[in-house]
Specification:
Length: 290
Amino acid sequence: MSSAVAALLSILDLEQLENNIFRGNSPQAGWQRVFGGQVIGQALVAATRTVPAERSVHSLHCYFVRPGDPTVPIVYEVKHIRDGGSFTTRYVEAIQHGETIFTLMSSFHIDEPGLRHQPPMPIVPPPEETVPEELKAAFLQSMPPHIRAYFEAERPIELRPVDYSRFLPGTQAARKPSFAIWMRATGPLPDDQAIHRCVLAYASDMTLLDTSLAVHGRSVFDGNIQGASLDHAMWFHQPFKANEWMLYSQDSPFSGGARGLSRGQIFSRDGVLIASVAQEGLIRPLQKNV
């Protein structure tokens, strides 16, 4: 197991303080606020630990209420909303400094057969053909130092955009509001589907906000956009392995009022739709100093 994946699993391994109360920590990576995917993953872990093992999460709906402080622990309080014959519902509040910073409502379901359909996976190059070294080097050189340091360090989630060129200097032209990226955990994970779903929930917040900016020729990396996740919803369709390649196909149908709506479909490498995502984020243009 890579050290980065081990660190991620440690972050997701919450400490239980009392019945339905858990505590999680943040990596000390120098970020000013807690990464949204981290609090989604940790809240889902807290909810999952109060649900029978034979029931898997099939949907979650979140609100980011306040920025998280990475220098202090986050307390997660789980409320039992319903325990039915086939569905279980949990509500989780994430608390810091005596205030709610995040909420999650999640639903769990027993495995049962039913009708089935799905869209085809987009036709894109395989992950092995998506990252020419010269493009990767140019991409990293264009990033602010703290962002470049993050991408150059060992990471728990590997990201391989199908089109790296949109991030390069001089290419900030309006583009289609769509984006595709290959991703996977960078090392083996325990053989527990609940962990794979929590890891994917963690990864699902990556790159999605930027999709709503592409049509405007902007990026969260350009330094004059105030970006933040506002809410996040996710539906899990099929069992999967988060340490195998998955295609995250994203699009943005609307932006306005300093907010952008983005959607994502996550496919296994062999074309099975394993999860769907929707997110609204803050994409507020900042005034440049003259």
